[in-house]
Amino acid sequence: IRIPEFQSSPSRRRRSEHSSNTGFVQSAATDAIRETQIGIHEQRQSAIEQQINPNQENLVNETAEHRRIRLEKQKQRDQSNRSNETNEKRKIRLENQNQRTKSNRLHETSEERKIRLEDKNQRIKSNRLNETAEERQIRLKKAKELTQSGRMNETEEQRQIRLEKQRKRSQANRAKKLVEKSTSNKLNTQQQNSSNQLNATEPNASCDTQGMHDFTNNEDITKKNKTSISSLWPESISRNLKEDCLQKFLQKMSMAALSEATCAVCNVRTHTQKLKKLPVSKIPHIHLLKVPDALKDFIKTSQTSAVQYADEHIGISENESVIQMTRPTQSSL
Length: 333
Known about the structure:
Blueprint: H1 10-61, H2 64-84, H3 87-107, H4 110-130, H5 133-153, H6 156-201, H7 207-227, H8 239-253, H9 255-258, E1 260-262, E2 269-271, H10 293-302, E3 313-316, E4 323-326
Antiparallel strand pairs: 1-2, 3-4
Region (Disordered): 1-30, 70-222
């Protein structure tokens, strides 16, 4: 069976040519629009970068006066924009600001958090020092309103957490006050004891001098009470210092340091560490150091029981060549 080949009609050829031409035109228009958008985006990015770079250079090179003027102008612009914004815009701005703050605090390090809190405390202190009485009343009123609105909108769980934190703060403050009170009482007691001792040791002091002492003592007590709040708890004695003191005590109070002996030549009693041992052959006139027989007989006849409690004596041993310490008894004498 032969399949006949039909040629396409002229109208169909015209439609296909028209569709191909139309697709080419549409694709060319889409590419042109895309290129135009990319070019606009690149121009916008370059313009932003050109605007940011000079601003950064200006911020680096600006002086304190220029910085103050710039911040004042920025503050005025912010106040003007906030006064003209609607509630919806204000809500969106605050939400964006909260999100940025949360994101920054999640990614900050402990050092950055510490620096941020220190800067915040310094700003708060500076603002409170420079504010007037009216500004202070307005600030306290706003803080009170915020606290009341927060407590009205809080849940039961949030309320329990807030009360628990408040309880912990109260306990810490009470403990701190007790410590400060005890330290101030101790200082007052010590000052009174010292003043009483001074009065007891100087009973003949003049009235003017005594009044001056009391005045100075009262001033010292007042100063100590003021500084007791910021004073630190005394630190414990270090282990190295204790060991050094104990070593010095042992060196000065040991038996080797406290033992005494009598010199066989000059009959002087002194510490054993200061004595020197010498050979008997080097001592001149050694026969003069020997105890005569008459003295021995006299000692035997005169001393009875007291010899047992006699002090140490120095005896010279003729068998050895050095001087030795001996404790003679009645039989040896």
